[in-house]
Amino acid sequence: MQRAEVLSYIALGANLGDARGTLTAAINSVASLPATRLMATSGLYRTAPIEASGPDFMNAVMAVSTRLTAPELLQHLQQLEALAGRQRPYHNAPRTLDLDILLYGHACISSPALQVPHPRMSERAFVLVPLAEIAPDQVSRAKLSAVASQAIKRVASVW
Hints:
Elements: E1 6-14, H1 19-31, E2 36-41, E3 44-47, E4 57-66, H2 70-83, E5 98-104, E6 109-110, E7 115-116, H3 125-134, H4 141-146, E8 152-156
Antiparallel strand pairs: 1-4, 1-5, 2-4, 3-4, 3-8, 6-7
């Protein structure tokens, strides 16, 4: 029996190297995962690092419909990060690519490897603003108001 498709939202970020090129490649790679279809991609946003140092981040959010389980999707995303040269020398280090599962259908997952909904997504404009762009029903006005003081600039609407 084939698994039902699940709508999942994935945050993308990069602040090392060709961040825009890396995010474009990552979107294409995620869309090419087995049993996965690209549903929507937000515009591209520039934000300052939060609780970290380094250059500004380029951020986006994408929606995919997938038959992969959440742990399988996470494993694929982590492989894509590694292929992009992602290293984790310390917490919140600058990165070539960061891919986070924000939402996986209506699932609530709490394991050492994965927490869904993403535990800090409501604290970050770089997640909520692009998510609201492609899924306004997922982000309340109150949540957007709570992060309104965080600087975020849309830099591209079409990849």
